[in-house]
Amino acid sequence: MSDKKAQLKVDGIDGTIEMPVLSGTLGPDVVDVGSLTGKGLFTYDPGFVSTAACESKITYIDGAKGQLLHRGYPIEQLAEQSDYLETCYLLMNGELPSAEEKKGYVETIMNHTMVHESIVNFFKGFRYDAHPMAMMCGVVGALASFYHDSLDINDPEHRRISAHRLIAKMPTLAAMCYKHSKGQPFMYPDNNLGYAENFLHMMFGNPCETSKIDPVVAKAMDIIFLLHADHEQNASTSTVRLAGSSGANPFACISSGIAALWGPAHGGANEAVLNMLQEIGDESRIDEFVKRAKDKNDPFRLMGFGHRVYKNFDPRSRVMQGICDEVLGAMGAENDPLLRIAKKLEKIALEDEYFVEKKLYPNVDFYSGIIMKAIGIPTDMFTVIFATGRTAGWIAHWNEMISNPYKIGRPRQLYTGYTQRDYVPADKRK
Ligand code: CMC
Question: Which residues form the signal peptide (predicted)?
């Protein structure tokens, strides 16, 4: 805690209001405005642009530098040297595991990959063309109905088991969404495979053949999960924290995070990028779309560009760019027409005055969609894959909140509606 103070003078309020200024280990100082309510004031910050809603030790982003640290470790180092499950462990526990701890953790997660057979009945209830994110919101929330044995959020052991179950079962449920849409039999997990490999096995395998998984693709899939693992207080993580602050169970909270992630301004952007590239259709039409993106009167935005926090290259997108080249090379898809459009669009946007001035760089979703398309993952599954990776961060943030003193999240408002008025009976209304 620093000795710094902020002072505020407000017309109509006597004297100066003094507020503590808190310093973190990194990042801007934070003015603690908690005492303002006692003075009859609230702060006003739509979109939480200037508001830190919590204290956290998990992830740090410096948007100006393009820096992303998980528990202090740069994302580039994790992507190169770690793997998804180790990063999950790190996010949840605060430290990298020893070799023995890692082995035990991987075994535990892989032991929880199967879902209760009754979950199949939930899928049977969904229409053949249900959006996989709609199915995910439902089935992940429904997991709570199977685990009455571990729903006491005040018991650290229950929280730990729920976290393991969620991380383990997300790929199984994600693959079930895909299989449902294809009308193919669900594949049981194969716990001898790695986490990402097992996901690809459940997605693309079938009971009549042994799955053949390209190691380049399995590695790329693992890095995609890892790069999505956490991103501090984004819309879906904040939703998980807010839902969790009421004491809701972790499955309900993660389901609410999945719902928040679905929107095109957040996790839905990777799907929107591919749809946009398809709509552009030909390199000759790029200029037309760039022009539309710059037009104030046109709601169209270049999907996969811009970020609330990064005003520099998103470090995840640089890693993603590298995997993109590797996967497309391995799949022989370097000349994919959509990829050519994407590359040209990236170049134009990086040089265009509008994008440069507003610091709109390609974000993680710009490249992840292209990689997933090359792997053969259908567009509507992209956000499900984001959700699968992000489960690690959601559950780590939820656990961090519950493990410390916390209050129910309850923002206030600037009310601009009617002042009090009297009820008018129906026959007297104009
Ligand atoms: N294309 C064209 N103009 C843009 C874009 C874009 N993609 N993004 C921002 N702008 C303009 C915007 O019109 C505004 O202009 P002005 O100042 O003249 O009004 C300015 O840039 C600032 O935009 P903003 O909407 O105030 O910024 P924000 O921080 O509220 O929004 C964003 C961030 C990510 C929602 C936005 O950049 C966007 O809609 N991008 C496209 C969707 C996308 O790729 N989302 C994925 C985000 S990364 C993954 C994740 O975290 O989920």
Answer: none
Per-residue confidence band for 330, with pLDDT thresholds at 50, 70 and 90: confident
Tens of pLDDT, residue by residue over 218-247, are: 999 999 999 999 999 999 999 999 999 999
Distance CA 262, CA 242 (A): 17
Contact predicate 323/76, CB 8 Å:
no
Alpha helices in 187-268 (DSSP H): 195-204, 215-227, 235-244, 250-261
Choosing from 112, 180, 201, 266, the catalytic residue is: 266
Task: Quote the percentage of the chain above a pLDDT of 90.
Answer: 83
User: In angstroms, rounded to a whole number, what is the distance separating the alpha carbons of residues 362 and 305?
Assistant: 4
Integer Cα distance of 361 and 304 in angstroms: 8
For the chain, the first-to-last Cα distance in angstroms comes to 60
In the residue annotation, 307 being an active-site residue is answered as yes
Distance 427 CA to ligand 1 centre (A): 49
| CA-closest candidate to residue 119, choices 164, 37, 186 | 186
Q: Between the CA of residue 89 and those of 67, 128, 239, what are the distances in Å?
A: 21, 36, 22
Q: How far apart are CA 334 and CA 271, in angstroms?
A: 20
Structure-block tokens of residue 14: 């006597």
Q: CA 400, CA 74: separation in Å to the nearest integer?
A: 20
Q: Strands 30-31, 59-62: parallel, antiparallel or unpaired by DSSP?
A: unpaired
Q: How far is the CA of 269 from the centre of ligand 1 (A)?
A: 11
What is the C-alpha separation between 119 and 176, in angstroms, rounded? 10
Q: Are 47 and 54 in contact (CB under 8 A)?
A: no
Burial of 87 from C-beta contacts in 10 A (0-12 / 13-18 / 19+): buried
Alpha-carbon distance 6 to 21, whole Å? 6
| Torsion angle defined by CA atoms of residues 400, 243, 221 and 166, in that order, rounded to the nearest 10 degrees | 80
Ligand 1 shell residues, CB under 6 Å: 231, 234, 265-267, 269, 293, 301-308, 358, 360, 363-365
- The SS3 call for residue 31 is strand
Task: Please name the residues in contact with 261: beta carbons below 8 A apart, sequence gap of 6 or more.
Answer: 133, 235, 236, 267, 268, 383, 386, 387, 390
Task: Report the amino acid identity of residue 252.
Answer: A
SS3 270: helix
pLDDT at 177 over 80: yes
CA angle 224, 230, 236 (to 5 degrees): 110
